[in-house]
Queue: 2 jobs
Job 1
Amino acid sequence: MTVRPLVILPDAQLRLVSEPVTAVTDEIRTLAADMIETMYDAPGVGLAAVQIGVLKRVVTIDASKDENAKNPTVYLNPEIVWSSEEKRVYDEGCLSIPDFYGEVERPDRVRVRYMNLDGATVEQEADGLLATCLQHEIDHLNGVLFIDHLSKLKRDRVMKKFVKAAKRDAA
């Protein structure tokens, strides 16, 4: 397992749509293991493959309350098949947008269909933090960032800050 470098805003890769996983291969299993390692190292509770520069529809999440009991789940080709009308606001952050948080309103509960590492199709209902994480990471697979759910003013400020930092780091 390898900790891979994170793709950071304003990198245009973050806006690309990821390709479906067509088969569970050794390459996909290695990618998932590396993503879990990278997610824990960051540290974070979720990671989409695009965040390490791989345009595959792979997500890893560990939203367990006990940080000592690691319980990651790998979601291949996850899709939301139902979401509640009830909403919930959560102060979201993102490993690709370090040290920035913003309140995002999303459905409180979702049902997600995905393929697991055994190739089986699974449906899972989630609420609270897990529901938020699933929606956040599935957004990544579609080239959407959590800042897209904020006001234009906040989003523009964040973009300006990260563009400036990228130019400074490149100099």
Job 2
Amino acid sequence: MSGYFSSYGVVLALFVIGVAIVAGALSVNRLLRPHRPTPEKLLTYECGVDPVGADWAQSQIRYYVFTYLYVVFAVDAVFLFPWATVFAAPGFGMTTLVEMFVFLGFIALGILYAWRKRVLAWT
């Protein structure tokens, strides 16, 4: 039983060493960095733009639509890479080719739908 738990001891020791290295690096950074806070440095900003106006602003829905479209295409890329590796395997060539064209057809329908709804027009 001691051999079983000794492997956990190694994992625990590596975890403690990792935490010590990170904590040490952050502590040394805090000690060596210059610290001169000014009102301008403590001011909240977004992407380098000074805050102007009220604290509540309305966002346009098209930004969320572009985000969802990006997620869809990122998921497509996740499916395309394994397909490329299986495609070369013997016995899977034509089957995987047909399945991928069906998959790309669904994606093309989604793009066509977004284009017809004028979601992809940036104005």
